Fold each of these.
Amino acid sequence: MFNGYESEIKTFDLLLIDAVVDTKDGTMIYSGFLVNYICNGEELDRIYLRNAVRREFKTINHSSILSNKPGIPVSIRGETFSIPYKGIINLNCKFLELHDTIETIESF
């Protein structure tokens, strides 16, 4: 998945991860750029993120309607943030391709 095979991505420069994680403080969303991951054979053990932020993932009841609302992003200090796979509920991967050219916008 992290190499783009599942989504048929051919080239990318960065992989942005949003991970919904079950923690002792509740469910959190961790976001950052994937810099490494560890597997034991085919089983994912942990992921490593840079420029990581976290947001609480709250369930709110309005008139008997349940909804999920991510909280305010909080930067995580340090160079690299490690998340063990056993706590991950869901992963979202966004493959980013950087361009070397600067495009200018002309006003009409």
Amino acid sequence: MPDFVVVDVETTGLGRLDRVVEIAAVVLDGSTLEVIDEFDTLVNPMRDVGATGIHGITASMVEAAPTFQDLAISLGNVLENRVLVAHNISFDKRFVTDEFKRIEVSFDPGFGICTLALTREKLSQACLRRGIEISQAHRALADARATAELLKMVFSEADEFRPMSLSGLSGEWNTMTLRRDVFPESVQLPVMRKARSLRFPTSDGTLMAYLDILDSYLDDLVLTDFERKNLNELAEELGIDRSKIPDLHWAYLQSVIHSANRDGRISEFEHDVMIRIAKALDLPFEDVPVVSEVNATPSSLEGLRVCFTGEPVINGQVVSRSSLESIAANAGLQPVTSVTKKSCDLLVAADKSSMSGKAKKAMDFGIPVMSVAEFLESIGK
């Protein structure tokens, strides 16, 4: 049994001309699936680093990093004769193959294992469902480690694989790497990308690879002409019939609708997101569900029995439940510990979109739900 190597790359963008800015590889023993080695480094792309808000990497962080050519021999030794594993394998395989091609190295990615195809979910959602923690999402090493743990749970579903091989590697051995950890948090910019809790509407790995990139492009709910061009090129590269793209986009929108409706209601925000996605994909709006009726907030809170859920952050500080209960009591309200039909008049949640047990009960019982910010404003705090 060959060893496996989980690879994750962060890139300047998603198009064919984009470059790798960080790469990580986690090597797993072929018999036990235990981690036996790791490789992790920032990469100087010799161009702009691209969307820092997605990967958190700045130009100054890669200035002293090795180029892909610098690290090619070290990386090649990590990959050689091992089976490639990735979450959306076509994405990582394409970028690694293109980087080797630029330095005239022949890279055969073999036939690897795609955990996206096995789970049909974005990495964050697949890990959440299985209790796997991603400490710092959209960092190559953190994502690779999480994918390695995911592989252990779904490996039995992988039925075919073949190791990678390389030829044409030459030059001096260069062991230089530059890990992101050497930079203080103040230098690294926060990652802004937020993945939707989406289960892809197909079991076809090729179609999922396309939908995964589409989902990334729709982070801002807009498709630019450049992004549309890249998607068309990706579809051609993956061998997807262009006549099937509208149906694929429609299936994607239906998955977003299903995800939004998982709590039995559609908020104004969710409705707006779905309308904007439909517009971006040139799809009709008729089947986008309307905003659900919400439980009306009482005009006066005086004397109400109020329950709190979640830990809100106000002005950068976590506000404890006991503090909120004291504020409520001083405002003439009666704090209660649970949501029941007879003993609670109002639920105050850290996030109105909460799917906590208390929030679900409140919706079922017709009890109004307010955010903490709305609550504090209502009582003049």
Amino acid sequence: MCGRYVLTADGSDLVEWFGVGTVDNDLPGPSYNITPSQRVVIVAETGSGRSLSTVGGPPDPPVRRLLGARWGLVPPFAKSLTDGPTPFNARSEKLMTSGLYRAPYARRRAIVPASGFYERRRTGDRQSYYIHPADGVLGLAGLYDWWRVPGLADDDPARWLLSATIVTRDAGGRMAPIHDREPLYLPPDLWADWLDPATPGGPELLAMALDAGRTVADALDFTPVGPGWLSTRPGSYRDDPELLTPVPPVAPTDDQMALPQ
């Protein structure tokens, strides 16, 4: 599961890190506590259309873009944002079978940049962790889609809503004692295939991502932190660097599995 994450890198850092060619002019800023339904930064490859120099010729190749999107996938058939689910996580096992994910997985795959994410132990002491790479930015597998906002005119720039979701997988390794799900991590050498809309969204691509993601997972740091990131009550939601302050870890109780070192 990935329900809260952190992105402290700014747009210029992400352009260099992900090899982006075009940047949206309205990206959300850095945040220490990103929650579902907020706007997030995604990397996607979308067609640039035919240029004047190629009229009558083939379309220009896709351009890698840095975009702002709503976190929570809104399917094209939704009548409103409250009409059915808008999942912020997509189970990897359902990418090719669910009506919510089949079309995005086929041609609208994204990367969600993250400095790290929060998770807490499922049972007992409920210890919280900030899970992150030693340096750099994680590339989390994602999907995106466009939703036509009802009632807005064709010439209204807000008529299309871009939304995204983070793909998750069965947890393994050090994550397994904490939660049963974790994000699908993408190593840099798989970014091009995942983003390319010409790459078939089938079992081969998913198998590659699942296998390669374990290498990323094995290199992550698990930093014990306090529970301040959890609350969404009005007036209690926090978004500040102190959320990442390490705390002394709580020893697991006898009925818990210890976090592997």
Amino acid sequence: MVAPNPPVMNSAISTPKPVHRVAFTLIELLVTMSIIAVIAALLMPALTAVNESMYRTRCINNLRTLTRGVASYTIDHGGYLPYPNWGTSVAGWLYTPPNYNTTADLQTGQIWPYISTPDVYRCVLDKPTPDQLTNRAIKNCSYCMNGAVCGYGALDANASPNTYPISRFPANSVCFWEQDDGNDGFWFNDGSNQPDEGISQRHKGGAIVACFDGHVEWLTWDAYNAEKDLSPGRFWCNPGSANGH
């Protein structure tokens, strides 16, 4: 019997194929980084615009809520407006002395029962420097009421009523605005201002105002500068004065 042929053994030892690692060259990496930088630069204005729009919307909602609180107050008080806190001597829309500069002090204000949330008193862009904050008497609010409500101090603060009725004001006259935050904090000395004491620079190109009829507007800085010089006008609207002052 013929023995079968033994299997042929492959004497060659198989070796794994070399692995080729894929890596960026320095030039490719620089090109990629340049492309990313260009895309980021193109997107940045759009992102900034989105953020500004969001901040502006929040501020509009804040002032709309404040004017609703004022309107509700007038309904419960014979049509008379809350005192604008012209000075720190008597109770007003924002606070009741001697409580006037903390978040908890907002609860002493005349319109608090109609609002009951501190967030609407602050603009998210209102970020004073430490020195500005120190110089502010009012540290809990970004908005001021028009001093025309009490005739810019002409009405007796201790009298009742010590304000005009809301019916004495044209519907589109300005009740609230974002006061100037670019100085040493003087415009935050109480809860109200007069029109020539400035308007906020926090938002790009303008600021937000709220009117006695409850509507809220975006007002450019140029529009504000033109309006504040009108006597009488939407800002200078003291019912007891021929020129609104």
